[in-house]
Design a protein that fits this description.
The chain is mainly alpha-helical and about 180 residues long. It folds into two domains: about 10-50; about 60-175, no CATH class. The chain has eight helices and two strands. Strands 1-2 form a two-stranded antiparallel sheet. Strand 1 (about 100-105) and strand 2 (about 110-115) form a beta hairpin. It is elongated. The N and C termini lie far apart (about 50 Å).
């Protein structure tokens, strides 16, 4: 584009910059912008379907009572967890998601390490992102206070993983008891 004298600094997909690209009159750019516009339209349709599914799902409605959990996250969590009754305890669910420390044992010596990372990577990622959003929207909740208490002793990455585990335990009890989130 610089060969044709078109200089776009920053994100080329804002409305103002897209209109500037259209004004350039280059057919290849117009074709690309048409494809981007059709993809944007398709994304909006899919987002609307996801919102509708989140409003119809009882589990997603319960999960959305947690500050920082949106419709996409609620659907992803409920889809990955499935029927909560298949987990006899919150610890089993945490183990399924691999938000538990690894264990190395030799004789009477036991050492706990990093999380195992053998479970659902998608669910771990969603829970960590929900934890970050929870800190933003619920500054005085127990989870946020727990995060800052751990973050003082260790790094924020360790603290957010530990908080995601606590959030998963709360999700287990919410889905088991069929009640909303209590800060």
């Amino acid at each position: 584009m610089s060969k044709r004298g078109i200089e776009i600094v920053g994100d080329p997909f804002t409305k103002r910059r897209r209109s500037r690209l259209k004004e350039a009159g280059v057919k290849a750019i117009d074709d690309c912008l048409t494809i981007v516009a059709s993809l944007d339209e398709r994304i909006k349709e899919i987002e609307q379907k996801l919102k509708t599914q989140a409003q119809e799902s009882e589990d997603a409605k319960l999960l959305r009572t947690i500050p920082g959990v949106g419709y996409f996250s609620a659907l992803a969590i409920s889809a990955e967890v499935g029927d909560i009754k298949r987990f006899p305890s919150a610890e089993k669910l945490c183990s399924y998601v691999s938000l538990v420390p690894s264990l190395r044992q030799s004789g009477t010596t036991a050492r706990l390490g990093r999380i195992t990372k053998q479970g659902s990577a998608l669910l771990r990622w969603v829970l960590v992102e929900c934890a970050w959003m929870h800190f933003r929207y619920a500054e005085d909740s127990r989870l946020t206070k727990f995060f800052w208490r751990i973050a003082e002793r260790k790094c924020k990455a360790v603290a957010v993983t530990a908080t995601a585990r606590k959030l998963l335990v709360a999700i287990y009890w919410m889905l088991t008891r069929r009640e909303g989130f209590r800060a």
